[in-house]
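Support request, priority: normal
Reporter: lab tech (M.K.)
Component: structure prediction queue

Hi team, I submitted a job for Ankyrin repeat protein from Medicago truncatula yesterday, and the status page still shows it as pending. I've pasted the exact input below so you can check whether something in the sequence is tripping the parser. The sequence length should be 339 residues. Please let me know if I need to resubmit or if it's stuck on your end.
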Amino acid sequence: IREIYNQKINHRRVLEILDCWSEKIQEFKESEPREASALDAMLQAAKNGNIEFIDAMRKANPDLLWAIDKNRRGIFSHAILNRRKAVFQLIHDPTVIGSNGPMEIVSSRKDVFGNSLLHLAGYLEPSCSQRRYSPALQMQKEILWFKTVESAVHPKYKEAKNNEDKTPREVFTENHEKLVKEGATWAKETAESFTLVATLITTIMFAAAFTVPGGNNQDSGIPLFLKDKMFNVFIIADAISLFTSSTSVLLFIGILTARFAEKDFLKSLPLKLCFAIFALFLSVVSMMVAFCASLAMLLKGNQGVIITTISLASIPVIVLVPSQLELFFEIFKSTILSD
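Reply from support: The job had stalled in the queue. We restarted it manually and it finished. Here are the results:
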């Protein structure tokens, strides 16, 4: 709590300094903003995604919004290169760019290398080497970002070429070739590991369906615990575990045999991995339920043993939650909620 309080105090002080500087900027003459490094500050703010600073400065002096560096790259260019969505969304704000809309800006903005804004979206994020996500999800985010910028430009710029005679799509493919290979390797290794677990569960639950607890009546072949309520729980849990683990195996096999093209990382591959992980999680939970139901039938009257066993059976599920479901929610968030 103390740390949060200190952060709020520091943030308030920074805003006070920003207000003072904004008032000073309004008094600057034409050449003074560059001498005061205000233009460089705007570009750095775009790189770091500091939307509060950019808003304050543009309101104090609208011309600061068009600051460019030695490569003729402005705040939108740096926002695209560094994946700063909040800054880039200013391109849709009519109070920022006027009534002509983003097309006017896009058509007039190219750097010294002939790169349009869409070309810049094709370059790999500078901080990608220190990514927080897996290579496959990072590739997905790169594709989504490229499509976001693509939706903001005029269709004719999608086939425009830079000084190296390359279109934006060619720049994207060239710069993301290594990431595609890393993503494919990560997906295959993940699928192989989970396939082994899912196959083992399928084998166990298939065998358990024909070797029911308590055995069968030697004359009729009917299970001895057939009329026991826990027997129904056992059979249902066994069936769910068997079907979900089998589904998980098939989905993981689908990942292992995928082509791993660029477009596969957008929806196909993440969705397969997402559903496969969820199915595997359900199979583990169902397997533990079937195990507990089996012991409950065999150990009637031994409540202490049953409760202890059920408590121990929850350990595998608890272990899976931080490791397996964390990946599931990460994929779900980037694939489903990103829409």
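Residues 177-335 form one domain. The chain has a mean pLDDT of 80. Let us know if anything else looks off. Ticket resolved.
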